Amino acid sequence: MRSHYYRERLDKCSHLMKDMELDAILLTKPANMFYLTGDGRLCAFAMITKEGHVALGVPKTDVEDVKQFAHFDELMGFEDEVGMIHTIAHYFEHFDIEKGNVGLEYTFLTQSMMAMVTHPHAKPKEIMVKDCTHIMSELRMIKDDDEIERIKKAAKVAESGMKAAVDALKPGITESQVAAEAEYSMRQAGAEEFWRSYVSSGDRTNIAHGLPSHRKLKQGDLVMIDIHPIFNGYSADMCRTICVGKPSKEQHEAYELYLKAQQSTIEKVKAGIGVGELEVAMHGVLKDAGYGEHIFGPPIHGVGIEFEEAPLPPGHAFFHGEKEPEPLEANTVIAVGNCGLYLGNFGVRVEDTVAVKEKGHEVLTGYPRHLEL
Amino acid sequence: MRSHYYRERLDKCSHLMKDMELDAILLTKPANMFYLTGDGRLCAFAMITKEGHVALGVPKTDVEDVKQFAHFDELMGFEDEVGMIHTIAHYFEHFDIEKGNVGLEYTFLTQSMMAMVTHPHAKPKEIMVKDCTHIMSELRMIKDDDEIERIKKAAKVAESGMKAAVDALKPGITESQVAAEAEYSMRQAGAEEFWRSYVSSGDRTNIAHGLPSHRKLKQGDLVMIDIHPIFNGYSADMCRTICVGKPSKEQHEAYELYLKAQQSTIEKVKAGIGVGELEVAMHGVLKDAGYGEHIFGPPIHGVGIEFEEAPLPPGHAFFHGEKEPEPLEANTVIAVGNCGLYLGNFGVRVEDTVAVKEKGHEVLTGYPRHLEL
User: What is the pTM of this model?
Assistant: First the structure.
């Protein structure tokens, strides 16, 4: 990506840091480092000062590699955890930050990682810590053209993965083997990586997080396939529910109702609408049909570097350290259909990645929405 | 698994909790819940009292499914985060725990998850929190026969994945496509899941965490392939480094040295030896050959439900909330070869999963260790 993007992002970040009286933020979450510097790798950190200076710490093995990707002012390699702590201390000294506030990623740092980055040998005692989660969310929420293009390509990759998975459906194949087809196809179609795939079947379509198991598909089973490829650092999110064979009347009716709820919610997507409004709309269709007790999960979330990111629905946002989202702006990208309709012996769900436009929206994941093969 | 295993594990857990003056532990990490109850799923929790009672909270959609897998005394479904908080509060009241100490997983809980499970509507004010990471590590460290069998099967699955990846190596294929071959084969061979695969090539073999990229293999490249299948809940960990074509003298020498270090360290593995001793042994071979500045990463870690778990080397353990490990006991399973030898323009690494025996060891991952195809 061209470097002026990073300058603009850092400038915007500086403004948000000043609003929160932060002197620096210390990032360890790869997605956030990737957004602000162009490189997000494991076991590394980025310190960003309120003046917009970027200092990176990476494993000493990675120093040359990171130079090819990252935009930064300072770079140091470290040997191990102790080295990482000392590198953090060095940067606080280098930037002359002795007191004030540093922002940390409360939704990412475990207790033990928190203890490490705030260790007395890392962080000067008089620097206080604050949560900077919502700064990063606010920065990443509205996508630029280059980001939208990457998400579109990830969506195409998802279509390829879904086709391979659906083509493989037949009695006797395991859920894990269905996932194998989707994942193999996504990597062949250009995904460098993917987030965890969900494939559940039969009774298991009723559970909230259907990770693939050894369960073998049976004639008449529903199969729920939810995939999330990553293309050049950006993700798409798509779920389809398919019947192996002829669906029962109950399966058919539940599916048609869900699809109506999802599609009519997508129809409402445009700049200015709130995530909460979309949630109410989607739940409304299901509730009006008498299925209010069978809904589970928030129907909407953002999509970008992560397949689930801000904006989150108001209820969810609170517990994820996020602010209640503002009305959606153009070039936000969301997934619609993250909640399921769960009837006890089976569940249905259809989810698509949708870009918010000034006067409407664009559905990026175009794979057909047919219950029958 | 037969239920007496869970009774024994809970009894042992009770003893460790009493030593730490814990009245209960509250688990949300799937690996820990799986070990103590037989079921570990996302967005769920298990409260274990010092008397060994098990209370589960799961998404309301999952109540019937969890009954098929988990050993428990109490089970409740919840609707959302608020419901989860109230379910936790309900169990504290049900078990009559109004004060005292509750153990939490400090190496797993983010700041925001911590805020949720200790929310005033979840945890009574007079209950204090402590880190229970090392209780779970101590419980999980020594494997029973059933666990060893599962890890052996995971190791066989890893061999199948490695063969598929190595067979696919040729100039022009991307790192991501190599990963695709390994992952596809592992699922076909019976893995229900796998942890993140690492495939790096050329210059990228020098970086610490080589996630697959779009880089295309070239003649003369080294390719580092590190895979971690999961079979019936248990993992194996294997890494191989292979040359596409004829290795250079420098590549060949570095590889042979590394293999000597790794194999001679494996030779030392038996009950009674310390992880620190093995670390010193492995580093020793590399240092004696003049490569001390080119080592990165801890050479040894445990393998089990997770592909990286306790025991960790002493230095690493401190930062992961673990105690310094005791000498290894029989039926501990470790990976040997987690550190790499990084020469700047390339790196080499060979890693195997090894079961500790009373009078020696058993190497579980048998794929050939040849640099050349």
Answer: 0.97
